[in-house]
Every structure is written in C-alpha cells, then in structure tokens.
Write the structure tokens for this entry.
Amino acid sequence: MKDYRIIFEKKDNMKYISHLDLNRCMIRSVRRSGLPAWYTEGFHPHLYLMFPLALSLGTESICEVMDLRLTEEVSEQEILEKLNSALPKGLHAICVREPDNQAQDITSAEYILELSSPEIADLKSCWLNFFHQPEILTQKRTKKGMREIDIKPVLKIEKISTQDNKLKLILKLPAGNDGNINTSVVIDAFKKYAGKPILINYLCRTKIFCKNSQEFL
Amino acid sequence: MMKNKIEKFLLDVQKPSRYTGGEVGEIIKDKSKIDVRFAFCFPDIYDVGMSHLGMKILYSLMNERENYWCERVFAPWVDMEKIMRQEHILLYALESGDAIKDFDFIGFTLQYEMSYTNILNMLDLAGVPVLQKDRGEQLAPLVVAGGPCACNPEPLADFFDLFILGEGEEVNLELLDLYHTMKHAGATRSEFLKQACQIEGIYVPSFYEVNYHENGTVKEILPHENAPKIIKKRVIKNLDKCYYPEQVVVPFIEPVHDRISVEVLRGCIRGCRFCQAGFLYRPFREKSAEKICQQGITLCKNSGYDELSLSSLSTSDHSQIEKIFDELLEYTEQEHINLSLPSLRIDNFSKSVLDKVTRIRKSGLTFAPEAGTQRLRDVINKNITEEEVMKTCQIAFAGGYTAVKLYFMMGLPTETDEDIIGIAALAQKIVDLFYHMPEHAKGKLQVSVSTATFVPKPFTPFEFEPQATKDEILRKQKILKKAITSKKIKTSMHISDVSQMEAVLARGDRRLCAVIYDAWKNGCHMDSWEEFFNASKWYEAFRKNNLSPEFYANRTRNYDEIMPWSHLDYFISRKFLIRENQKAHQEQITKSCRESCTGCGTNQSLGRACF
C-alpha cells in the first residue's frame, strides 16, 4: 500500500466540472487506467481518492492536487502514463510525488486573472482605487447563510499589468480549512464597486501554499 | 460554431457541462470526410437523455461507419434556453458544436408522450421549420423519429418526414445508405421519401390520407404515392449477432441512471394486459449468457463505471439467469462493481437469486403488484399472488432488508373501491409480517406505496378501454389515504392531469397535431416536469381546435373501430387483443408465452415459432 500525490491540470471545458463531478470522473479514470487502486475496507468498499483543496466551478488550474492510494509500488512514470491515457481532454497529470504536506497545512493559493470591461476606460486605476479603499466589504456565502466580510486584510496583489485595457492580476488569497476566499468573492466585490459589467477572460489557479509561503508539496 | 458563442454564458447556468461535450467516449470525426451527419435528439434534458440505452446503441452503431457521424443533442434546461433565445444561439450538437439545422438528419427518440412539445421546441430552437410542409423540397434536414411511441405517431404526423417502426439497428443504416446514394444523385425531399417508404419499417405520414366519421372516429386511412397499405415494424432476429457498443459516453454530471447497461433480452413472455412494452417488443429473444458477460465486462473496463445493470423488461425471465449471475459476480466482486437488477419479478425471485442479490447490495426491494386484489391482478394478467409477495418479503426481511417499495396503478379496468382498499391491506400485511418475524432486522421498516394512474395504450388488450376520469381518480386516492393507517407506510400518488394528457396523446389521431402545436405556441414544454406542466394551456389548445380530451382519453372504443394506428403492424393481431380484452373482463388469466403460445400473431408475422 502506498500513497501518491498527483499534481494535475484542469483546463478548458474541464473548468465547468464541479468538485463532485471531478471526484466521480477521477474515480472512473483511475479504474480505466488499470492502476492497482486501493479500496476502502468495510461494507461498501470504494476507491480511495483525496483532494486536499477544492477548486470552484469556472476556474482553471495548473496545480490541482489529488492523493491516490495504490496497493503496491508503481513508478511515477507508469502512473503518469496510465492515468493520462485514461483522463478526458482538459485533465492532465503533470507529476507524481510522495505526499509531504497535509491538507490542513494549506493556507493560501495564487490565481491569475484577466479582466476586461468595454465600459471602463482605465480598468487598472479603477482596480487600484478599489483595492486602496480602507476596507472592502463584501458578501460571502457561508454555511450559516450570507455573511458580510472585509477582504481588505487578506487580499494580496502579487503582480498587476495591463494590455489593451485588459487587466492582468496575480492574486494571493486565503485557502484551506481556516477560511477560504474564492476569486468570485473578490470579483463580485470589484463588479459592485465599479458598477459596470466586467468580463472574466481568464481565471486560473497557479500555486497552492502552506505557512510561510512554502509551496504545498 | 455555436459552442463558442455559448461559452461566455456557461457560468450563468446550472450544470454547465450539460452543454460542453468533451466526455470520455464521445466520438469526434473529421467533418471533411463525412458524407452523412445525424443529430440524435433526445427531447428532454441531458441528465435524462444520457441515461437512455437506445441512444447509446444507435449512437455507436451509426458511428461505426467511417463516413457517417452521429452526434448527441438534448433539450436545454430553461435557464439555457432563455439565453439561447436572447442571444440567437441555434441548437447545436455536443460533439462538433455545429448547428443541427445543417445536418442531414435530425432524429428524435419518442420515449414518452409528454416529451412531444419539447420536440417542437427543439426544432424551433434549431431554426428548423416545425411543420413538415414548411420544409420545402430541399433534401436536408430530414426530421425523423423512432422509439416506442412511434407505434402511434399520428399526433406527431405533421412535424415529421418519416417514422422508423420497431428496432432500429438495421433499418437506421439502410435509411442512411439510401440517403447517401440519393444525396449524391441530387434528389429532392419528396423523391427521397417516396423511395424511403418502400423500406420495411419506414412510415412516411404525409403519404397517407386519414378521413373521419362524423362521430370523430377514423373512417379510413388511404395510402398515396405507392406507399404500402400496412407498415410493418422491424425486428432483429438474433441478439447475439446484433451490434452492441463496447464503449459509451461517460457523462461528467450525474444522470438519472448513472451506470452501464447490458441488455439481456428483448420482448417479454408475460403478457400483462396493461403493459405496452410487453407487446411492442415481441418476440421474446434472449442474448446468450456468454455474450452478456463478455459485453458487460468489456463495457465496465472501457467506461470505468462501477455499476453494471442487467436491463430488460424482465431480467429474471432469462433462462440462464443464475449462470449469468455466477459468471458476472465473479468479475464484479473482484473489481468492486455493483451489479444492479432493475426488473426482477416477484414470482421467480428464488432464494438463491436473492442470496446473490443480497451479496451485491442491501438496499431496497421493489415490487410491482400493480393491483391490490387477486381479482384485479387476474384482470390485468399480472400473475403474482399475495402468497408469493409475502414469501419473497419474508426471505428479504430475513436477509436484512428493511425497505420495500410497492408500485400500483389506479383506474384499471373493472376496478372497484374494494381493489383500492386491497392496496392498503397488502402494504399492511407486509408491515405485520416484518414485526412478526422473530429475527427481523433492527433497522426501521419502511413500506412505500406509489400509485400511478393507468394510461390505456395502443397494441395492448386495454387499447379499447376508457381511462378513469380525474374526479374518479381523486376519489380513489382519498379512499386509499383513509385506508392506510400505519405510519410505516408512505404513499406517493401521481397527479392525474398529466396522465390524462398522456392517455390523449397515446391513442390520439392526426387532428392532435394542431393541439400540440397550439399548446407549444402557448408556452407548453417540459411537460414531464411537474413544475412546468400546465393543464389549462393544454385545454385551451383543445378548445381552439374544437376537440375534447375526453373523446380520446375517456371513451370506450368498439372492437371494430379503426384505430389511428391501424395501418401500423406491430405483429399483434386485433383478434388476439379482443380475445385478451374479453378474458380480462371475465377475470381469466393467460399463461406466459413459455408455457403455451397465446396466439398473439407474432409467430405468423415472423414466419417462425417464437421458442
């Protein structure tokens, strides 16, 4: 029995697959791959898969993580080959490693966003004005219903640039069990601030971090 | 390409992957090398259509031909439909993303009557004229349909170029081949239809003239254009030699039935008098145990599914069922696959079969006694005795089952209040049995009783019978509710408005085309979804066309009446149906086909014995 951590991409049409659907899709892909998957013991044995961090619908990613347990040791190369031959287009395993960190170690994640707006002349300054407010209040859906939160303290811009009035941002947002902020929460707040339609051209998760900005391994 | 246009709206709708395609098992081809493009349309949403076995078979079958490309099309859910109409996005096929109006064929499967308005809506969304006569002389797209409801396609006659009767595996390819040849020759639509109607199983409704008596019944059905007087359904001779897919499209979202299916047999030996499928799909044919196991294993391997269903009208009637179980269980248990058996009959549910099912999964047990008393079960020829029900429940309870689902019909011919009270009595007896068993399982017992309103259907011995009126059904539902006293028994009862409309459409004639058209124009669609069915809009459409739903649903038909489907031959003779109807009223049962031939006429049409 051995655990493997698989880093995979979720791109193109696969961004429209919900977390639950991804789970089902991965189970079937592993079954098709012929890898010696480990099944839970008990009355209804099921294939053991674990996703340390969910990705919201509509977001692409180049850094998704899935932990898979196999009954025997298999080379990384073989896992990659077998899994990739079974995955649908848009899902692609990049590398396999031994799990180091645990799901609860995750603290933040990095995203690339590309936004545009036909009705806002200078989208970058609009964004900066939005960002430099003393507080950024917005609605977040929680288990207890909608709750108002201030995202100013946790919102970090890693990089900002523009091209043809397309605003390109690299954002770092809290992720994991101790408070997760979706990009949609930020974008909704920005839309509300701008008061004009804003289009998301591209949205992709690029990195997952643990404490002290260590990458999740 | 429509798919690009829809991309920016995908996050505004529920379950966006209904509209993207890209699933494992999807078949993509190079358009430039394709001679015939076929849009296989299921007139309901993706989640429903992706559960349909027939579509999986015909999709793979047509795509086996290198130069033909069959793609999937489903009705968009209302949120997406709104966007498509606002943004002028035409209905497209999932594989290529191309608008289906540019395809050679637009083919619908007719699975249930309440999907008819969705067909009109889908054609309209596709930008294709809804009425056949408005499609002109250009050859494509040809709008065609098959499936069980094609046995009386008259209410849809104005919308389709042709219907395909019976089993599609052979005739679909014959039709596509003819089209391929005639397309190259530059044929017009009517030239093609004149040739197509000569293929056995192809019915071109526009070549037939229907005249009516003053009382509204059919007077005569006259063929024109040299079309055959009687159109025979198609039947596959040998299931082992018949095409069956080795891979299916595996959806991302969870469809209604999220599993792989192997068809184990076609037809049914039982002859339950209410059951249309039991007559339409005759003769009874089994697939060999070897083929079933081989196909099941191949499909599991290729798809990655962890549930395999053995599907048919009555799986336990397969003569080698235990052998199939043994062989398949050996594989499925090792591979962690659930074997599911949706159509097991109560009477031959033996201890050893039950043991095997128990090994698979301990969930609920489902029975369909259909009627509450032995008298009424004899009338409908559902040959199950109360003793058998109790015996099976006893085995099941001893095996640890704690949930029993019972399905019944209301409004059956000759039904009395006593029969309704019998439903409650049977459910109560099951509850009592459970608690009287010394070693009954600890879990909480739940007996659910579901009742549906009986809908008389063509090609059954009850095709002559009136449907019970809505008031009568409501009265009987009240009686049943009152008769059920145990808290262990839960009831759910089907609304009767929908059932009435089903009865109308099932036995309707061509004049209903105008009603369906007007109902759709009035906004009716997604009628099989409770929240969208609007009875008053349907009634309005009837009034506008001077027709009454009661004429179709609640009228007794004479044995010699010409039915709207009398020119369609499903191998079931009228004489047999009359005989069975008389026997029903005499409360006499008919044995299964395996015990003795019932003389339904199928063997004469086939020119051979069924067994």
In short: Chain A has two domains: 2-99, 104-213. Chain A has a mean pLDDT of 92. The longest strand of chain A covers residues 199-210.
